[in-house]
Specification:
single chain, about 70 residues, mainly alpha, 3 helices
């Protein structure tokens, strides 16, 4: 994919196979589960490099129970 139009064509192509765009289904699932993401603290570290180093820096002085 090199252009925005290429990306749109690809997304349209996925719909042929039953892929449904939007967040309605995941929102319904979260509602059915009682919005569990609202009841625990999370730090989402994303990217391609250095995630473990960043995670360790966040945990300095805290107990690491999420290894």
């Amino acid at each position: 994919m090199k252009t925005y139009e290429d990306a749109l064509r690809y997304l349209d192509w996925l719909c042929v196979f039953g892929v449904k765009e939007g967040l309605e289904r995941i929102r319904a699932l979260a509602d059915a589960l009682g919005q569990p993401q609202n009841f625990y603290r999370t730090i989402h570290v994303a990217g391609t490099n250095g995630k473990n180093t960043r995670r360790k820096k966040f945990l300095v002085g805290a107990e690491d129970t999420a290894t």
